[in-house]
């Protein structure tokens, strides 16, 4: 029996399996920046907010009108895991917390009972281009944790383990372990109320790279879990006689090993795994609850309270250009990198 359940073509927002809700994939070759941290390029004729559509110049403003990114917006009932492999993200939120992270850092944010935040992508380089490679996963919360206090945790690049090894032909494979474990290498602790905080839920988030011609077998998992492999960089791979081109997702059966034979170029993958929460899911925009009534309550509460209001000068707030990587938490303690 094959290890493959399904093969799907990828767009900018990737379909995921329970306990994940979806993955937004951002690959933008931003030009040089200007003094306002935006692109040193014309923004004329851009349909701001609709630019998840194909864009011939290779970069998007999303909802940002001056700086690329997503100005203030609310969330309730789930978590965001924001992986910035290249470029930077500026975080600001309704609790007064803030941060700048990137070039391999990960922010793990539990929205819980409600938080408003902005995610802007400052173009810090004025003398060269500003490429951005970012994944944002939406990870569901079980009913018992949907109304916990909001919280975020930084997984700094220096603290995220990378397991490197060679196949029998000397070809290199690396696995960056953001959640879960591989061959006795364990990821840092996640946010405390996360579904991933309980090891029995078998949540794994890995970034995998394989040298051209490398071969590697994803180990089987004895538990009944959902697992998906997202092939986003490279040329072609082979899994069990299936030849799969770039920009495809492969849903895998957890009880079987799956051998990947890489093609003629270096390949990159995102691997997601987790025991399903298996509860009803009601989604509307930025809110994820169990019932439509709870969604309506979230909308009404946000209209009334704005989940604490907005303490920053603008809804697309960015931090000073000279500021390095940092995280200012709601309780006032600060991390500086």
Automatic annotation (TrEMBL):
Pirin C-terminal domain location is 208-308
Q: Which Pfam families match?
A: Pirin, Pirin_C
Q: Which Gene3D superfamilies match?
A: Jelly Rolls
Entry superkingdom: Bacteria
Which residues are in the Pirin N-terminal domain? 64-139
**What protein family does this chain belong to?**
Belongs to the pirin family.
Q: What is this protein called?
A: Pirin family protein
Q: Which organism is it from?
A: Dokdonia sinensis
């Amino acid at each position: 029996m094959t290890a493959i359940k399904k093969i799907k073509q990828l767009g900018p927002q990737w379909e995921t399996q329970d306990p994940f809700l979806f993955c937004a994939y951002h690959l933008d070759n931003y030009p040089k920046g200007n003094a306002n941290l935006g692109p040193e390029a014309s923004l004329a004729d851009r349909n701001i907010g609709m630019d998840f559509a194909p864009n011939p110049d290779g970069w998007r403003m999303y909802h940002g009108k001056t700086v690329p990114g997503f100005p203030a917006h609310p969330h309730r009932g789930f978590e965001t895991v924001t992986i910035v492999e290249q470029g930077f993200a500026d975080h600001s939120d309704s609790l007064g917390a803030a941060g700048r992270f990137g070039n391999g850092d990960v922010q793990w944010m539990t929205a819980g009972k409600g938080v408003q935040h902005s995610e802007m992508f400052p173009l810090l380089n004025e003398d060269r281009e500003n490429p951005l490679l970012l994944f944002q996963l939406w990870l569901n919360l079980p009913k018992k944790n949907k109304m916990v206090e909001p919280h975020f945790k930084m997984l700094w690049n220096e603290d995220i383990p990378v397991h490197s090894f060679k196949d029998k032909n000397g070809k290199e494979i690396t696995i960056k372990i953001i959640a879960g474990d591989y061959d006795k290498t364990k990821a840092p602790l996640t946010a405390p109320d996360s579904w991933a905080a309980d090891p029995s839920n078998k949540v794994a988030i890995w970034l995998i790279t394989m040298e051209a011609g490398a071969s590697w077998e994803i180990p089987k998992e004895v538990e009944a879990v959902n697992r998906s492999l997202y092939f986003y960089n490279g040329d072609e791979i082979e899994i069990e006689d299936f030849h799969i081109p770039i920009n495809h997702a492969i849903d895998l059966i957890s009880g079987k090993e799956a051998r990947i034979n890489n093609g003629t170029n270096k390949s990159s993958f995102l691997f997601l795994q987790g025991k399903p929460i298996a509860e009803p899911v009601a989604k509307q925009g930025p809110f994820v609850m169990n019932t439509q009534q709870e969604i309506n309550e979230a909308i009404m509460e946000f209209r009334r309270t704005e989940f604490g209001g907005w303490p920053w000068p603008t809804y697309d707030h960015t931090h000073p250009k000279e500021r390095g990587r940092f995280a200012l938490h709601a309780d006032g303690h600060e991390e500086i990198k």
